[in-house]
# Entry
Amino acid sequence: MTIDSILLAGDFSAGSLENSYKDAFESIGIRTYSFGTRGFHNRIQWTLLNRVARRIGSETLWFCQRASRALNNSLQDAVLRAKVPAVLVIKGDLITGSTLRRIRASGVRVACYFPDNPFPPHPSSRPGSLPAARETDLYLVWSKRLAGKLKHAGVANPVFLPFAWDSEVFPYASPQPQGTWPGVLFFGGWDREREEFLEELACHLPLRIFGPDYWAKRTKARSRVRACFQGTGLQGAAAAKIIRESAITLNILRTQHIIDGIPDGLIMRHFEVPGSGGFLLSTRGGGATDLFREGETGEYFTGMAECVEKAKKYIADKTARRILVEQAHTEVALRHQYTHRAREILAMLQ
# Structure
């Protein structure tokens, strides 16, 4: 089968993975159709005005199927109208296995990229996540260990495919001088484990936190973490600028990246930070250390003591930091942009 066009289904919000893939496929000559799910999701949320009811509803299979009927019917109609040979679903909350099965029965190949963890008890899992995964031709995830776990769960073709760097979303500029602010930057979502880690880190190093207002609402009133929160999130070019200005950008893997007790896989930060021209210090885990070799194109820590030691070392040693920043950026630019991933997906589907 020759794939000269593809339909992408997903959120398509600004800076999203969906838009990165859309631009990547178009840049390599693949005609692209977009099916946006955000409007359907918003209407479904309004049927459950209470937060607790929303949580219960999203975890109830019969409710998900009933509430998402319009979404699934519209997706199937869009695929038939576009007459594409392939569909790529990004995450696919509330897209059912029966819908994917019908699309495949019409001769269309179906791939799904799931950017989170589809297994309970992780917040991104839904009762229909694994049944839908079993109805795909290709199920792409960010962790080799997670791919193996999905295989054991009956998913026919789970494949490890890392995220990548979108130079339009996180633009590169010369990072010299890099790290004019001699401290640690963290930007991302709040959770209790991250709060506890950063609370202790702030005892040892200058720290700035950017992210959603949970960092102001859910942290302790007089904590160091709340004092380090800058009151806003970071997106796109603004994030890239502050990444370059900061000596260290910290990446803390979440519980969903712990697969059978072992940290594994890569997240977007592994590519966005070196793509932007910044220095990334990340939780040590499988996948990342394979793509970005420790001490050459990546730096890692296991536990607080090593995190503080590595951060202090590279804050003080500007030359070593500059060398690693340049080598990491070259690696990302040459091998890890979304055009590379789009070609990999096409090769697998064909």
About this structure: The mean pLDDT is 92. The two ends are 6 Å apart (CA to CA).
